[in-house]
Write a structure and sequence with these properties.
Lipocalin, 2 domains, two-stranded antiparallel ribbon, 11 strands, elongated
Length: 169
Amino acid sequence: MHQDLQLPKHLILFYMKLLFKAPAFFLLSILLLTSCEKDNEPEPTILEGKWISVEQKSVYYDEGGNVLYEVSNNDPVIKLEYNRNKMIEQAGTSSSVTSTFSITQENGKDYITYTPDNAQGFPGAKMQLIEVTDSQLILQTVTPFGLYEENGEAREADKLVKTIVYDKL
């Protein structure tokens, strides 16, 4: 004698619903996972756009913090173009350099670090963001050593602070 195994009606309905919903849940999870890739893209910043240098100032200091020499000019003119996490720089008539950049904060100060795309193992340049508005960008570097020329003679400084002011085009 053969006896048919009968599942309760509520279990049959549960498994049928699960069977029909499983593909939908699978597709939904794939869509959610692939949409996360866009979340990794950097957000546009106030830096985005084209900038041109309008002033470059170099100040040389001795070990006591006294100014030894100061020079202000805008030679060569530097052009920057920021797009998401990429920056293209052209100084004067030289060829342009494309870099990846990131903005970090240290001791309450904002810094921007550039790593040229074609420089393997190069640590990149780090500049302090002194000011950034819709129309002006001011960057500054501090190096523990600097050489300058005064009265035709090469001189040494204990610190060089270079500030570059850019206007947005």
